[in-house]
Amino acid sequence: MAKLVVVLGGDGVGPExxxxxxxxLRQAEYPLEIQTPPCGEEVVDExxxxxxxxxxxxxxxxxxILFGSTGEASILIMAYLRYVLKTYANxxxxxxxxxxxxxxxxxxxxxxxxxxxxxxxxxxGREGDISDLAQALPDYRDLVGKKFADFGxxxxxxxxxxxxGTDRIARFACELARKRKKKGSMGKVTCVTKQNMLRESCxxxxxxxxxxxxxxxxxxxxxxxxxxxxxxxxxxPQKMDVIVASNMFGDILSDLGAELVGGLGIAPSGCYSDExxxxxxxxxxxxxxxxxxxxxxxxxxxxxxxxxxxxGLEREASALENAVASVYRERxxxxxxxxxxxxxxxxxQAVLKKNT
Length: 356
Known about the structure:
Layout: E1 3-10, H1 14-27, E2 32-35, H2 44-47, H3 53-61, E3 64-69, H4 75-84, E4 89-95, E5 111-117, E6 127-129, H5 130-136, E7 155-157, H6 163-182, E8 188-193, H7 201-213, E9 220-225, H8 226-235, E10 242-245, H9 247-261, E11 268-272, E12 277-281, H10 298-310, H11 314-330, H12 344-354
Parallel strand pairs: 1-2, 1-3, 3-12, 5-10, 8-9, 8-10
Antiparallel strand pairs: 4-5, 4-11, 6-7, 11-12
């Protein structure tokens, strides 16, 4: 039976990149029922919201969701996809395709994945006035002995790390590393924290990751502080396999990782719960180039390939990724960010041609 895929364009360049990916999915005649309900900033005037009931009801029924990008209008969509669907694991592959525009002298064979905890950490922003914190915890002192009342007027942000959430993301990362090892990767999990300064929250994250790793003796393990990890990603990217990190650290490192392999236009992602998943590019809505037909749809097309794999269409997923790789290798039809002149849809057509 055909799988129900709901495509949500979202804001900015989102409708353009999802249109490109959806064109390929339809023309390739995969066993998919693709629905594109109204959503995003372009329907706010008509429906009074970027996420009409029709779109939400289809998402509730969907086997998978392909999403464009979140701007200011589509915050409700992002909240639904992440917090209502409880998609706790944000998987962001960083893979170099020969021919892409990497700033590194030797980007060959970069192929690692950042597994970002998607529901805890610093997101969503849990913030307020320091005076409220001083009132709630009048006797608390930090490492240098200061009370909250000593700071004066200002704001605070709370970071949440739980045992359950960390165990869950650690196990997801380990299962992914085990799966990748079967396909030839090194089978290594790298835990990233800032435990030397955030002793309690990062300390718990590191300890729980290491506890879960005990169930995976076939996997290698290492730990780095986030600043050191950033340096190592630039200096030794080929030595990375699966990186597991809390929400904000994973978010920041994945942008760095994307630049190593050619930029945000190439970086896909998938967000998984135990029952649902949605797929989107790592890049944002890029309003400065929206509507110009020049945005690179690679990240969304590769996200669609991840979606195909999730839906059990592994052969089709591999073929689609290989088609993208072939277009980059030839360097004849690339978008402006990759040194070419192709439009968004011209690139999609080139990929489709290689995929058939």
